[in-house]
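MOLECULE: protein
FOLLOWS: sequence and fold
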Amino acid sequence: MKKELSLLLLIILNAQFATTNSQVLRPIRDDIGFCWDAEEINSFMKYLASADENKSTDESKNLVAAISVHDDYLYAGKVYYPLFKNIKTKEVVIFGVTHGSVRKEMGSLSNILILDEFDKWRGPYQDVVISPLREFIKSKLPKDDFIVSNKAHAIEHSIEAMIPFLQYYNRDVKITPIMVTQMPFERMEEISAQLNKIISEYISANHLKIGKDIFFLISNDANHYGEDFNNSPYGMDANAHKAATDNDRRIIKENLIGEINPDRIKKMTVEIWPDSSSKKPVPIWCGRYPLTFGLLTITKILNDAGLGDPEGKLFKYSDTFSEKVLPFKESSMGLTAVFSYRHWCGWFSGGFYSK
């Protein structure tokens, strides 16, 4: 009897040890709009390369940060591609959205960053390793500035959208996923100043070169237009579509092209943050908070590294109605939303360069 009890206790202890020491892998959130099969990603990237309008253009020199779309690949593949073909860095910090789906599940979240504690994230080629930077941030950032939630990161899709494209060009890429919640500009300045010091210390201690060893990505989709978004100030026809996309392009041109500095970043919030007192239509950019926060942090990091304010460049702007569905054959991918004049989403990819 004692022998049986000892054996049972050993089995329980071994099970507990295995559970404690087993790696926690973040599950895939969107297996419809994104692609998680290595062979299909290879085929899809070959298709995008063949359809690329600037096949011979290399835009990678001094590229240190970027903005990426996070919509379905069969809609936005041609907008992802001109950016990601220029990113081959060893590790990437990704500033992601806190979508309504997360807030619906977890309640109101604001004035904080959201970090995770997954050991690895799923990728199409292999599991993606988390950079040591994430734990370094947790150890240094004031506790009031962030929470740790695997649940929030498991619900959110705006960061995982980057992974198949990043991993295609660097199988061993490491990531630091950071979800940004809604917060006032002053609060963003406060937290970004703290985060800048931490990331700059990590870069210095590990002798990393920005753009070559570490890169910064901001996940953002542009205007969400139509009746499903309660957002149709121009109407819902061809003229409205042109007016809304022209407005997106104007905002990009006036705020994200050329030298980026804190004054321009703050000015941009008037264009893309909800404001009931505004007399002109404010587009629904779902990445407006990570875009603002990410740029504040990135400009501080670059200046601390002696690289000055970054220069912004647009790679490509488009939208679901203009692109429609890419004719990529024999795909397992699907679409997570329809497109029409009554429901469409704009997006763009853009890069930021050190001087």
